Amino acid sequence: MSNLETAQDPQTLRRVAIEPVTRVEGHGKVTILLDQDDHVHQVRLHIVEFRGFEAFIEGRPYTEVPVTVQRLCGICPVSHHLAAAKAMDVVAGYGPLAPTAEKLRRLLHCGQIVQSHALHFFYLASPDLLLGFESEVAKRNIVGVAAAFPDLAKQGILTRKFGQEVIRHIVGKRIHGTGCIPGGMNKALTAAERDLLRIDVDQIVAWSREAIGLARRLHETQPEFYDRFGESRANMMGLVDANGGLDFYHGGLRAKDADGKTIFDHADTSTYRNLLGEQTKPWSYMKFPYIRSLGAENGWYRVGPLARVQIADFLPSPQAEEERKTFRAAGGGKPVHGALLTHWARLIEMLCAAELLRDLLDDPDIVGTDLMADKGPMREEGIGVIEAPRGTLIHHYRVADDDLVSFCNLIVSTTNNNQAMNEAIRSVATQFLDGRELTEGLLNHIEVALRAYDPCLSCATHALGDMPLEVELVDANGALVSRVRKG
User: Fold this and answer.
1) Which CATH number does the domain housing residue 240 bear?
2) Full 3-state SS string of the chain
3) pTM above the 0.90 mark?
């Protein structure tokens, strides 16, 4: 139990709900329990939508999975497309990908990271950071940012558009494309498409670095505030390559504690079940993962930009690595855990992805036509792990002899961050809300802490576990026909 959550009877407390949480993908709410003196006794993030992908993917042909599971989300479909394709590469018995196929997947992934990070920072987070947490509600949005900072808004919109164009050229559509298949890719990138993307990539790199400068200057104006806001000392996890550098597409799992001490390193992703456990709680449709060796109470962790730039020994592009060093120096070389620092880390990653994207466009292999790996015998099980924009994403499948999926387990980035997000909003509640009369601006502080994690709540709501579910059947006139309740 958090220090904030008391044993006082909830029936004696006043309940305040933030519903829905705004400027995030999906549906969720936050509940706050207050006593008569406005002291906070409990704060919880509730995921209130249920989508059931882990259940209804069962019984489908394994070849459909990379296309089907990306329907979890319209913001990060590429992440699910890639993770599922990696898992099905194994199931279908394919060996190492052809160089062109792997580089196309990496290019696709970089496009996804650029567009997703740009979307989050410029559209969803910047209204709070640039206009103020308690600024006028009607103007605290991307339209208000565009009115006050037109050049910045334009750069954000065009940066996201560029990432979407990368995706479109590789998989056919900006959203829910079909390029990745078990064993490789189904479409080559033409020289003309490559040249078209190459025209704008240098500008995207430059704009990404300018955006980092903005985040750094915001921190410099109020360093203590940025360091402490939504602070939750968390374990951290992500993928690194064989040399310890950040790898968005492939690598081994590394975890460090809140002080930077290694918990495990270069762990084979296929062994994730030995490393991670999953809890369910009765007040959320989102699972609570934890590091098994530390137990559920102490083993919760953070993934995503703030974790990745701190657990990696280096970033694989020169300008981004330079910015990472500046970021680490601002924290005195020690791990930092303030929620708002995630924005700075996220923009460093956007620059890294843009630089990697440019390098891939300059690689002759990227317009090759050898797209399929060599085929071997089928396997019963496949696990695909990548670093999605929001953090580590795990897809795990078993396939029966009839080529139909018999088991599916997904641990998505936002699920990995579940406890960290709850701890962040509790930290904000303790610091800013406790004992004060609540206003819309103060309640927005809670949302600001959540938005820093860029939660994708739709992605995170596919497993039921032991949580209650009520289904009502109503007729055309709205009359209740029947009701079934689980739990």
Assistant:
1) 1.10.645.10
2) CCCCCCCCCHHHCEEEEECCCCCCECCEEEEEEECCCCCEEEEEEEECCCCCHHHHCCCCEHHHHHHHHHHHCCCCHHHHHHHHHHHHHHHCCECCCCHHHHHHHHHHHHHHHHHHHHHHHHHHHHHHHHHCCCCCHHHCCHHHHHHHCHHHHHHHHHHHHHHHHHHHHHHCCCCCCCCEECCEECCCCCHHHHHHHHHHHHHHHHHHHHHHHHHHHHHHHCHHHHHHCCCCCCEEEEEECCCCEECCCCCEEEEECCCCCEEEEEECHHHHHHHEEEECCCCCCCCEEEEHHHHHHHCCEECCHHHHHHHCCECCCHHHHHHHHHHHHHCCCCCCCCCCHHHHHHHHHHHHHHHHHHHHHCCHHHHCCCCECCECCCCCEEEEEEEECCEEEEEEEEECCCCEEEEEEEECHHHHCHHHHHHHHHHHHHHHHCCCCCCHHHHHHHHHHHHCCCCECCCCCCCCCCCCEEEEEECCCCCEEEEEEEC
3) yes
Q: What is the pLDDT of residues 253-280, one digit of tens each?
A: 999 999 999 999 999 999 999 999 998 8
pLDDT tens, residue by residue, 99-108: 999 999 999 9
The answer to whether residue 460 is domain-embedded is no
Structure tokens that stand for 136 in this block: 């006028």
pLDDT > 60? residue 86 = yes
Structural domain of 393: 51-419
Q: Quote the mean pLDDT of the chain.
A: 92
How is residue 285 written in tokens? 């449709």
The domain total for the chain is 1
- Return the amino acid letter for 397: Y
Whether 349 is covered by a domain: the verdict is yes
Residue with tokens 């939504």: 230
* Mean pLDDT value of segment 71-87: 90
